[in-house]
Amino acid sequence: MAEALFTVLIVAAALLILWWRRPPLAALVLAGLMVGYAVTVRSEGLPVLVLFPLAVALRDWRRWRQWLAAGLLAAGCLAPVAGYVVWFHSWSGTYGLTRSDGFYLWGRVSSFAECSVIKPPASELTICPSGTPSSRTPPGDYVWHAQMVRDLPGGPVSPASDSLLRGFAIRAILTQPAGYAEAVAHGLWLSVRWPREDYPDPGAVYYYSFHLQPQVIPAGHSWIPGGTAYSDALAYGHATPSRLIKPVAVLVAGYRRLVFTYGPLFALIMLLGLGGLVRIRRQPAGVRWYLPFPVRFSVRWCRSGSMLPWATAVVLLVFPIASADFDYRYLLPVLPFAGLAAALPFARCTAAPVKPAAHAKLDKWTTSTPAEPAGSSSSKA
Questions:
Q1: Which terminus of the chain is more solvent-facing, meaning fewer CB atoms within 10 Å of its CB: N or C?
Q2: Radius of gyration over alpha carbons of the chain, in Å?
Q3: What's the CA gap between 325 and 184, in Å, rounded?
Q4: Please, what is the Cα angle at 66 between 82 and 77, to 5 degrees?
């Protein structure tokens, strides 16, 4: 799936930004190109186009050189995206990354939208979701089977249809903001709940697992005009959709069923990621808290590393849920950043370089200078 390439590109870009306190300008341009390329692979990375340059700028926002560095990073981010948008227009006649954002956003609002509350104009009445919200299947399933969308002239991903669906979805969000917030919160809950739910439907979840028989894709079935499911799979993968190679397949299938990120463990990793604001260290010998069991660690409030990994994890978790629906495969790009953020509480607090008193300040995104203990040599002086 595209998540693998997308994740590699985003993680590599973040490493280039975080590897140095003040990254070389060439490294920032390269990181930007990687981010831009990643966004053309998966549009869920769109918020990163703003997040990464903003993080670089806030490292030392009073220095014009820092804004220059952030500007070069932003330019690198936008270059591949702009090139793709121009190419997409030459191919489809529409400026954009895709013609399906309205389609997926309509699916998102189908979980709560009620036309009796929204009161859409006559042009949008035909795409009102049928039934009550509780009677509909999850958006990731409903959007592919909703007849009122599939019957749109030119299909649901034509420019006119996509614009129509997007307009209805935005109107639904503005009219029912509480329902939208509840839908997003439900998606976040699904990411940490246990046991896992077959979401959006058992069929989709089945295909996410490795099996000891080739995957069968319907040869004559078409969800949207323009091709069949089988022909789309051949065009996308440039090979037969599924092959079985033993004994490796047995090992992979067994590993997949035993080793994965459990929901509560994922929640713990995300909570630990907030530790970028604190430092967890071992207690000195002989120092213990007054608890019925020995405690060998203490918490110190200082910034032990960048908050960029945690912020990236949150953005990559929330944005797909808010713009389409929750899906377990959307968690794949989140895990590397969440894991990195969770390790930072155990990193050493490093001091910022010494600066003149008039210009000394804390680095808001990377490091901070811990408070000097009373009685030290410098305080006595």
A1: C
A2: 25
A3: 8
A4: 15
- Could you give the CA distance from residue 2 to residue 332 in angstroms, rounded to a whole number? 11
Helix runs in the chain, H state only: 2-18, 25-41, 48-58, 64-92, 101-109, 115-118, 139-145, 147-150, 159-175, 177-192, 202-207, 229-237, 248-258, 263-273, 308-323, 334-343, 377-380
> How far is the C-alpha of 168 from the C-alpha of 120, rounded, in Å?
7
CA atoms of 361 and 60, how far apart (whole Å): 8
Residues in the chain: 381
Conformational region of residue 128, where left means phi above 0, alpha means psi within -120 to 50, and beta covers everything else: beta
Residue 341 contacts by C-beta under 8 Å, 6 or more apart in sequence?
272, 273, 274, 275, 276, 307, 309, 310, 313
CA–CA dist 354, 72 (Å, integer): 26
DSSP state of 330: G
Tokens 């069929």, residue located: 203
Element (H, E) at 304: none
Q: How far apart are CA 120 and CA 33, in angstroms?
A: 41
Q: Which tokens belong to 259?
A: 């080793």
Phi/psi of residue 279, nearest 5 degrees: -130, 130
Per-residue pLDDT of the chain (381 residues; tens, 9 = 90+): 788 999 999 999 999 999 988 899 999 999 999 999 999 999 999 999 999 999 999 988 888 999 999 999 999 999 999 999 999 999 988 899 999 999 999 999 999 999 999 999 999 999 999 999 999 999 999 999 999 998 899 889 999 999 999 999 999 999 999 999 999 999 999 999 999 899 999 988 887 888 888 877 777 777 666 778 788 878 777 767 678 888 898 998 888 888 889 999 999 999 998 876 555 555 554 444 444 545 455 555 455 457 899 999 999 999 999 999 999 999 999 999 999 999 887 776 655 454 444 444 444 444 444 444 444 444 443
> Are 127 and 106 in contact, with CB atoms under 8 Å apart?
yes
3-state secondary structure of 82: helix
Measured between its terminal Cα atoms, the distance across the chain in Å is: 62
